[in-house]
Input
Amino acid sequence: MHILRGGGVVGVPTETVYGLGADAFQPMAVARVFEAKGRPLIDPLIVHLPEEGWVDRVVSYSSHGQKELANRLARAFWPGPLTLLLPRRKALPELVTAGSNQVAVRVTSHPLFQELLLRLGSPMAAPSANRFGSISPTSAQDVQIELGNKISLVLDGGPCRHGLESTIVAVEEDHLAILRPGPITEDQLIEIGHVLAQRPGVHNPGNRPGHYAPKKELQIIKTDIKSVLSGSKKQGLLAFTPPSAEVADCYAKVEILSRDGSLREAAANFYGALRRLDLSDVDIIVAKSLPCEGIGTAIMDRLRRAEHGSKHGTGGGPATSRE
Ligand code: TXA
Ligand code: MG
Output
């Protein structure tokens, strides 16, 4: 606790991925988060709360309708993996939102993180605890590997339940817009309010194509796993469900996301499996595409970014790191 009170940064467990957190009301502490992550100051941070009652500390609603809609979402999905984009309260340091008058907030369901926030008595600003551009960590060990030399403490809260970053939703007076797909799916949000189709060309959070990239080249395949095998490069397979022995034999390393085809389980295992393949001695990671339904939409979103980032040199290597 004294690290946080003194303006330090710590690795924190959440139900989605591990975060790199600091007291949101200490601008110097928030600056250290950007520094440790190597993240540009123009890219805002999510503010984490232990309970819904704290929202007013950082948000100032612009209309009654917006507040009503946000309350309905909060009742349905908080604490949990949903981040709401709402008007920022002036008291919140501008650095947190990178100068924007909108703040991204969420109430975490992780008991250890909730307890930390309550004891600190202040909201915490936290991005995912990876170096800018690389894979989000889903265990305390992953955070150590990513940022161990930059931060003094990682709270170990076990493996992350969801394994993918929260769904981010902009809340307007009478509608929602999904800015980043995640564990709370579009079908779940439609139950609560009118969901607008995404406007093309708008810069959305986490939507630079190079995000979430491994250092190795990654290629998504849609059809028969075997058909892409060629050349002498050592290939690793990221499979949704167990491949046949014949197919598995063609790969130097195989990671299976779910034994029984559960997309939730696949999401929880996704970053860990990708990280293991990335750290192994394979030259290329071949990823079988997953069904684009439910949380599968969010997994495919991250896979496509990983593919783009790995091909365009935006992977997490020291020289080229991005968020
Ligand atoms: O599950 C999660 O959301 C994890 C855990 C740690 O809470 N956090 C996370 O943070 O994924 P980060 O910073 O890696 O991704 C959040 C995205 C970023 O792309 C950022 O640009 C966007 O949300 N964002 C944050 N605040 C914003 C704001 N005020 N306006 C627009 N975009 C915002
Ligand atoms: Mg991130």
About this structure: The first helix runs from residue 2 to 5. The chain has a mean pLDDT of 90. The two ends are 27 Å apart (CA to CA).
